Amino acid sequence: MTNAQDAALDLIRNYYATFNAGDREAFLALLTDDVRHDINQGGFESGVEAFRVFLQRMDRCYREQVEDLVVFANADGTRGAAEFFIRGAYLATDDGLPPATGQKYHLRVGAFFELRDGRVSRITNYYNLQDWLAQVGA
Fold this sequence. Notes:
Elements: H1 3-21, H2 24-29, E1 31-38, E2 44-46, H3 48-61, E3 62-73, E4 79-90, E5 103-116, E6 119-127, H4 129-135
Parallel strand pairs: 1-6
Antiparallel strand pairs: 1-2, 3-4, 4-5, 5-6
């Protein structure tokens, strides 16, 4: 493994560790100012402030923890991927989704990263929305 690859793996692990810890400022500090966030089965947003607003909505509507994390990175440390399970609870109704009543869910997620200057410049998340809808009783 190269030093760049090790650094990329550490960055991705840290990304999820700060997510799980709920330390949103430390989490946002891991992102480039122009970060691109590709939202599962949706559009994309750009910039740290857009990501901050996204996290605020997520924290209002969901309580989630990443489990069984496995990370990958290319040799030059510019791209990476992760596979994990998200264990969550649906706390408040999110726009366009079924009513929330505290339903619990457990989903397999894939994520893809572009990394630049020791930070995340793109994150793309994928999970099976139909599985999530079935788990929350939609």
